[in-house]
Amino acid sequence: MTDQHVMLITGGSGSIGAAVAREAASHGWSVIVQGRSADKIAALVAELQTSTEAAGIICDMWDTNAATSIMAEAAAKFGHIDAVVDCISTGRGKITGYFPDTDPADFTGFYDLSAAWFQRLAHAAYPHLKVRGGTLIAFASDAGIFASRRQTIIGAARAAVMGFVRNLAVEAARDHIRVHCISPSYVKGSDSAVKMGSERMAKAEKRAGLGLPSAEDIAPLTVFLCGPGAAKITGQVISVNGGLNA
Ligand SMILES: NC(=O)c1ccc[n+]([C@@H]2O[C@H](COP(=O)([O-])OP(=O)(O)OC[C@H]3O[C@@H](n4cnc5c(N)ncnc54)[C@H](OP(=O)(O)O)[C@@H]3O)[C@@H](O)[C@H]2O)c1
């Protein structure tokens, strides 16, 4: 049992998840990070433990009852949970590109990954967050807000997350649970940026008046939304895109 506030970050070993974990640690949170790779999680936990209480969970989101088992393991680590931030990102199938070129066989899997996974996590997290009044944060992407070509499936799945967050926020407020969605677009230095290629990133960088954000630019907002300064804010979908879209 700890006196400190406790944040669970699923996908905590990823680009954005690790930046959020470091930012939370620097603000005095106890931190639990989940990922699939035991080595990555062990290295991050060792780093975080130099400044705060930290623990790791190894679990695959496709394992049976992954959401409930992650939440049960997390709650047992430090005795309570005050914030759950979902940063999992994983394989997608053929869901980008012009719509006729996408593969319907992959549609359901992508909805499950984007929307139904977060709904399962939210369902498992709810009783834990209700105990002390906590915060739940989904990561989606600007494809759910701003229409563009070759994003039909991603856009729809991300919009589903945003709709869920806004509706849940209204309902969960009575239990003092706050719910938000953070929506990145292009994130400098992330694995996705590497996959997108330098030419596409350079074009986006030119269009973003403030410059494209890095994971470290997104982390402070995430930690703020989980903290006392945001106690009366809920149901928000916030883009962090350097002015690319508004
Ligand atoms: N980076 C961007 O440019 C960008 C843009 C728009 C939206 N976003 C969104 O922002 C969020 C975070 O993205 P990111 O760039 O930080 O992702 P990332 O660097 O690819 O990290 C992915 C995380 O998810 C974990 N993970 C992957 N597959 C998993 C599985 N099957 N079960 C459990 N955990 C699994 C990874 O763990 P292991 O490393 O152990 O596999 C890792 O911790 C995602 O929702 C993403 O869609 C990112």
Descriptive notes:
- This protein is an alpha/beta fold and 246 residues long.
- It has a single domain (6-238), classed as Rossmann fold (3-Layer(aba) Sandwich).
- The protein is 45% helix and 15% strand.
- It has helices spanning 15-26, 38-48, 66-78, 107-132, 152-172, 191-196, 198-207, 215-226, and strands at residues 6-10, 30-35, 54-58, 83-86, 135-139, 178-184, 237-240.
- The chain has a seven-stranded parallel β-sheet, with helices on both faces.
- Helix 5 (152-172) links the parallel strand 5 (135-139) and strand 6.
- It is globular, with a radius of gyration of 17 Å.
- The model has no long low-confidence stretch (mean pLDDT 96).
- The structure holds NADP nicotinamide-adenine-dinucleotide phosphate.
- NADP nicotinamide-adenine-dinucleotide phosphate binds at residues 11-17, 35-37, 40, 60-62, 87-90, 139, 141, 184, 186-187, 190-193.
- The site of NADP nicotinamide-adenine-dinucleotide phosphate has 27 residues, from helix 1 and helix 6.
